[in-house]
Amino acid sequence: MKINDSHSYGGADVESVFALISSEDFRVEAAEDAGATDIDISVETSGSTTTVTIVRTQPADMPDFIKKLTGDTVKVKQTEKWGEPAADGSRTADVKVSIIGQPAEMLGTAKLYNDGNGSAFDLAGDVKVSIPFIGKKIEPEIAKAIKGSLRGEVELGKSKL
């Protein structure tokens, strides 16, 4: 299932937003704010690439038919591989979100760019749940959870900038 989500960081430049979202302290705070536990964050820079890896356990905010498969919590691993700034200052990342121990993941691209009013953050990806017969019914719920998590993180980020 395709997922597209856009958010605005009004008045904040791309480098300020990138500095925030590539901060271990901010990502821990965002995960805690979302109700996650057992949070492990790493930010590694190698050459022109910054990789943000977040592993967390969070409530499975899903319908009951999905909780029967996952339990009340899920362990999620999120990896963002950010490249160096483009000539216009924008940044892009390859993004992977996996539910550990479940055949569910989202592969996509994030873009952080100047939108004339500050910065915008776009996420485009594909959610895939490889469970015969019911995977397609679960994918919209996973997409909804990813969008909700991103929305919460952006709102927290805007309060920090």
Can you offer a commentary on this structure?
Strands 1-7-6-5-4-3-2 form a seven-stranded antiparallel β-sheet, with helices on one face. The protein contains four helices and seven strands, in the order βααββαββββα. The protein has 161 residues and is α+β, with helices and mostly antiparallel strands. Strand 2 and strand 3 form a beta hairpin. The radius of gyration is 16 Å and the shape is globular.
Task: Describe the structure concisely.
The protein is of the alpha+beta class and 161 residues long. The protein is 32% helix and 45% strand. The chain has helices spanning 14-21, 24-33, 64-70, 135-160; strands spanning 2-10, 37-46, 49-59, 73-82, 91-99, 104-114, 118-129.
Low-confidence stretches: none
CATH structural class: Alpha Beta
Question: What is the succession of H and E elements?
Answer: EHHEEHEEEEH
**Could you tell me the number of beta strands?**
7
List the helices and strands and how they pair.
Elements: E1 2-10, H1 14-21, H2 24-33, E2 37-46, E3 49-59, H3 64-70, E4 73-82, E5 91-99, E6 104-114, E7 118-129, H4 135-160
Antiparallel strand pairs: 1-7, 2-3, 3-4, 4-5, 5-6, 6-7
